[in-house]
From TrEMBL:
Its EC number is 3.5.1.25. This is N-acetylglucosamine-6-phosphate deacetylase. Keywords: Carbohydrate metabolism, Hydrolase, Metal-binding. The keyword ATP-binding does not apply. Residues 36-348 form the Amidohydrolase-related domain. Transmembrane segments: none annotated. Belongs to the metallo-dependent hydrolases superfamily. NagA family. It is an enzyme of class 3 (hydrolase). GO terms for molecular function: N-acetylglucosamine-6-phosphate deacetylase activity. InterPro entries: Amidohydro-rel (IPR006680), GlcNAc_6-P_deAcase (IPR003764), Metal-dep_hydrolase_composite (IPR011059), Metal_Hydrolase (IPR032466).
Length: 359
């Protein structure tokens, strides 16, 4: 049992929450503990942590799941990089075991976010140049190794637009990202069944009032979009504009192997990246993922002026709903006991994943 100020879908309750693997009961009661109890964070875009990159395969997913759990992330998607097909298959084979069985003291790996290789060669960002066009057969063969929950795609690549409804029918959330497309390409993707946008503002054509791009399509029409609130990838003013325009925009970390590590050189897929001054860059100086954790994302959003409940929804409830995970991302009886407890400075003092105490 935990006591404090508890965020439920109906609002704040001061009282107690009782749970085993699942939440049994939430009751109002005097509880002057100074603690805030939120749903565990759900991160749908994670490349690494603790010096380990998802593309390494093997036990990388378990290491990453444990490190992020320490910061309140109770569920996540292992996220791949653009790479040659054998390297992607190797990474997925490593993730399959972690998805099948949650590592002890680790977050639940809900599946895969396939960020590459079905992207634009003109909007690689920190992705290596091993792009290829998607086919239904290829995606299904990758999905057979480990379940793909989210797939990033550049809709302007020939054949991709027609593929979107087929992938959506398989239950995948197709996202527009790493795209050199126009506003019309973004709108067409949404009409075809695309569900969101990958790290909004980054790796896509930007706003232009004469020649609008993918960002404009998202701001004008999207219900969901990822955004990286590390205050490095996107200016706070642009984040606030996006949150005002996109009702259920949600935060992701885009965390790399450098997360939780000292400054230095790390792997991001086949590339070398460098952590310095709180961010990660390629040798060219371009941003290359982040070292953000979800607890810091919460503090950043609140520091920008968001109400704590709103900030929590954008790190838990909305990503859960986006994936159709109705038993996560909310504190209600019957839901998984994925819980983060914060002190008055919004620092985690306890984390529970499916009832297991992590902190």
């Amino acid at each position: 049992m935990l006591a404090g100020r508890i965020l439920t879908p109906e609002g704040w309750v001061t009282g107690t929450i009782e749970f085993g693997q699942r939440i049994d009961r939430i009751a109002a009661a005097p509880a002057d503990t100074g603690l805030t109890i939120l749903p565990g964070f759900i991160d749908l875009h994670v490349h690494g942590a603790a010096g380990v990159d998802i593309m390494r395969g093997g036990d990388a997913g378990a290491v990453v799941a444990r490190e992020h759990a320490r910061h309140g992330t109770t569920s996540l998607l292992g996220t791949t990089m653009t790479a040659h097909e054998p390297a992607i298959r190797h990474a997925l084979a490593g993730l399959a075991g972690v998805i099948a069985q949650r590592p002890e003291r680790g977050a639940r790996m809900l599946g895969v976010h396939l960020e590459g290789p079905f992207i634009s060669a003109h909007r690689l960002g920190a992705q290596p140049p091993h792009v290829m066009p998607a086919t239904l057969e290829l995606v299904q063969s990758l999905d057979a190794i480990a379940p793909i929950r989210v797939l990033t795609m550049a809709p302007e690549v020939p054949g991709h637009l027609a593929l979107i409804p087929q992938l959506a029918a398989l239950g995948m959330r197709v996202q527009v990202g790493h795209s050199n497309g126009s506003y019309d390409d973004g709108v067409a993707a949404l009409r075809a069944g695309a569900a969101g946008f990958t790290h909004l503002f980054n790796g896509m054509t930007g706003m232009d009032h004469y020649q609008p791009g993918i960002v404009d399509a998202a701001l004008a029409h999207a219900e969901y979009a990822e955004i990286i609130p590390d205050l490095q990838h996107v200016h706070p003013g642009a984040i606030l504009a996006a949150l005002r325009a996109i009702p259920r925009a949600y935060g992701i970390t885009d965390a790399t192997a450098a997360t939780g590590m000292p400054d230095g050189e790390y792997a991001l897929g086949s590339q070398r990246v460098y952590k310095c001054l709180g961010c990660v860059r390629l040798a060219t100086g371009s941003l290359a993922g982040s070292v953000l954790t979800m607890d810091q994302a919460l503090r950043n959003l609140v520091g920008m002026g968001l109400d704590l409940a709103d900030a929590s929804h954008r790190l838990s409830l909305y990503p859960a709903d986006y994936l159709g995970e109705t038993e996560r991302g909310r504190l209600v009886p019957g839901a998984w006991a994925d819980i983060v407890v914060l002190d008055q400075d919004l620092q985690p003092v306890a984390v529970h994943v499916e009832g297991e105490a992590i902190l």
